[in-house]
Batch of 3 targets.
Target 1
Amino acid sequence: MQIELKTSLKALEKAKKLGPKGVLKRLDKMGVVGRGGASFPTGRKWKIALETSSDEKFVICNADEGEPGTFKDKLIIKKNAETMIEGILIAAYTIGAKRCFIYLRGEYDHLRIELETKIKEIIKKSGLAVTIEIIRGAGAYICGEETSIIQSIMGNRGHAMYKPPYPPVEGLWGKPTIVNNVETLTGVSQSILFDDWDSSLRLFSLSGNVENPGVYEFPLGVKMSKILDVVRSKNKIKAVSFGCFGGFMKIKKNMEITHENICKEGCQHGAFSMIFIDETHNIVDVSYTIAKFYTYESCGKCTPCREGTIRLLERIKQVKEGKATKKDLELLKEFAEHVQETSLCGLGQSAGNYILTGLKHFKSDYLEYLK
């Protein structure tokens, strides 16, 4: 297969001139943070792996992208995989890794052959003694979590592990491992190459009851009204969901979309997926779908999540069937808080967000179903 590459590897060349410590300083200076949801400073994560002594180190590119409503990484892999691959090579050079992995979402397998060809050509062009292996995920939402990815790559069941130790200290086969999202690694290459790279820019996955769904780039602080002007909707939009784990929020047209403002509403921005919900939908119905998703995707390792997601689904179903009372809503809220506070990993710790924010901002939707 003959594929035209879109990279000259100038970012990698510049990284080599800077040296590992220079790369870390550059990432910190440019404000590079994780784009998978946690927003952890990338330079700080890499520094831990660099300074941890080991005979072997690893790099994992998280291309699992299993969060409903999120599809930005797929676009990068299709349109600009070269820059992502260059970011992986820069990461490997910086921490001293020889083996790298791309954990590719199972549903993206149709992108694998072309991606493998690009990897082969770019590594050859780079001159680095590095390998990049594609690991195909099997559709488990939990494997978007870094310790679950590590377990899966090692051939184990995708279960979240207790932290610490954290992956940059002890990851794959007990060795230092950095796990970064597709968009993060793409940003690494750009931030090293371009002095005017803007750390505030984010890729937004926009979908739902809108006429123009898609991936759009906006700076943090963009007003909700501008996003609504872009996506447009036939009916009045009453809510936005930040993916299954991010929770529901009322539409506030003058609100600036920032981490802080989203958190004030009890929501989590995650990877900036925004699913718009119009006034023809009841939040309880949407919550019921999310509850089924969490019940199915729980890995089952910890009891609060394994059993709690089932109890939440049962309670939501009770509301939908008109069999609940106001007291049942109080119990539903209590269950959601308990699951979040006692679960092992991010899946369970976010499994009640859609309920807590739904009850906070759209309690009238719940009251419509009460007997």
Target 2
Amino acid sequence: MTTTVTQYQADFPILRRQVHGHRLVYLDSAATSQKPTAVIDAELEYYRHSNANILRSVHTLAEESTEAYEATRREVAHFIGAPRPEEVIFTRGTTESLNLVARGWGDAHLEAGDAIVVTVLEHHSNLIPWQQLARRKGAELRYIELNPDGTLSMESAERVIDRRTKIVAVTHTSNVLGTITPVVSLADLVHGVGAILVVDAAQSVPHQPTDVAALGADFLAFSGHKMYGPTGIGVLWGRTAHLWGMDPVLYGGEMIGLVERDRATWAEIPQRFEGGTPNIAGVVGLRSAVRYLEQVGLNQTADHERALAEMACRRLQNIPGVTVYGPSGNRGALVAFNVDGIHPHDLAQALDAEGVAIRAGHHCAQPLMQWLGVPATARASFGLYNDESDIDALAAAIDSAQRYFQR
């Protein structure tokens, strides 16, 4: 794919920008990806041509809007290997999806003394909902620990997942270390004790083919904005039986079956979880993003981005004073690092002066920062529009920052 990446760069108008007199080198796709023209145009065309609320009116615009919305549900289901479109619930993003499971399924099924298991790798979005659920229900929160290289310890998993466990929530790909967790092996452990497996796939769905059935997940969450789609739109997929076992969390319009003065019943799934007017334009944009990724080819994208991550690791490891974190070899499309004597925030500002956009901070993963023994890291993350020249620019900008701060 590297030989044809220029073709894809041309699809992203923002990459034609200059920042501080330099070409934009965008290495922050793990925070949010850039958007191709096809996605931008899809949202604009919806507002120009078919804007209307869904599921309410019977006029032409409303029917067009509803069909576009439901067509996206069908295409997303196919994209992730979901057996039924109604298992796809639209949310505002991964964070809302995970909170929906914690509130809707967790509150209904957990009791005092039960256990919830997470990992040290988790983004706060896949940690705090479970912390709060444990506090509400009097449950125990347990952690699967890491091996020294940042991979998940299956020995630790086998110790902490037992008959008291009701929920295991794990990231598929760490947003800091790039660690790819052994979800299939975990699913066997989890289901063996009668628990459910919740997968945060925000950093995996945009970068590799996803098949929820093959993974063995019970719930899986991801965001549109990290997969070249709009902000403010996300997906929760859940097995039909589990969705029927969940309570709604957001009450209001179009999520009801019957409302009387003193009681109400709920609509079928998925509508019972989509109360109020949804982000219809975002859903339309998500459909375009799915089609774009399918056109490019996720196997091709995965190979390209992982090659870039491995290339970046090697380049940075060869720069004196740079520490790279996370496993070697098989990793997600990102690399976290620190430069001796330069705070990550200062480094990010110095790189921005060279047109290179990276992330700096604790990456919403403070327990993992504590495990690493650092307050923060810098992070470069890759999309299908990046190539080797971007890694060259990153390395050159780090060299420039080192010379500036070490004067």
Target 3
Amino acid sequence: MERISKAVLAYSGGLDTSIILKWLQDQYHCEVVTFTADIGQGEELEPAREKAKALGVREVFIEDLREEFVRDYVFPMFRANALYEGEYLLGTAIARPLIARHLVRIAQETGADAISHGATGKGNDQVRFELNAYALNPQIRIIAPWREWDLNSRERLVAYAREHGIPVETRKDGGADYSMDANMLHISYEGGELEDPWTAPEESVWRWTASPREAPEESQTLELTFAAGDPVAIDGEVLSPGKMLMALNELGARHGIGRADLVENRYVGMKNRGCYETPGGTILLKAHRAIESITLDREVAHLKDELMPRYASLVYNGYWFAPERTVLQRMIDESQTNVNGIVRLELYKGNVIVRGRCSSTDSLFDESVVTFEDDQGAYDQGDADGFIKLNALRLRIAGRKGRL
């Protein structure tokens, strides 16, 4: 074992990290500092403090990062309309650079030699934590127990926990619970029967959202106000970023919005099946694209759409602090200067329906040009003749030469 005197552990108090805490003490004989980030996972965090203290931890950090998470990570990502592989709203991926930043900060503040995390050697999170940590502190040492120990199944972890008196959540049949990750943007589920992509998730899997079948029979309409690409008010009530996402989550969950069941391509090379609930994010993405549709120039909008998959991959793969992501972010943020206005939405049984969009100051929609009625000379339809012929020139030449 590499000699480590003190390590900062990303600690949730759950199965993996509770075992890691004990394992670090036993295997590295080091002092462990725990860091628990409150990013809206919806759990009581004080039990994590008590668990850590019971295992001899003297320095316990529990920090409320909810506003920072949404303001500095979630909202910038949604300005890009980021979707990984067309479906995944990146709820887990976007939280990792925030946690990595605070792990590195606390290591510096406490004089720790290393940081540690509970990500497995098969997953994406090990890459995300470590790439971001190395970007912030190139000399940081990282302990990834899943790449070292022989506790390579969730059943073995449960057995280890019972052996050392560590309480863990299990299913009714006594097996390990699903591998879950929750924050203000989403909750994810992996493992168990979900490892078979042919097996549909049981209704009991979903913890946030109502089943669309059981959602209210009456739809709900709301107006979402945007300023510089970010949502700032619901039905005229101004909300902070964190409270905004919480409110959208509550609305979406009530109406069965935001469930996803998908198979994604992990950065490490394998395919993985996961189920996700992202109610507020699903509403936000729909609304943001709606307000952009009337405020963004056509070519700027198309350029954003071309770059979005690259941006999403950078977030998914753990390159939040990489120069290419920050350069893309500056371009995206510049594009949002005039993305101001209101979107009217209807929520109904799993659906987010756009019912209207307006911007009194920045709309590029000109009714006098697009009208089917008399446009009073705002548009000369005869101009289209030359436009079409010039664009058809290369096609006509190729056609004459039998190339098409």
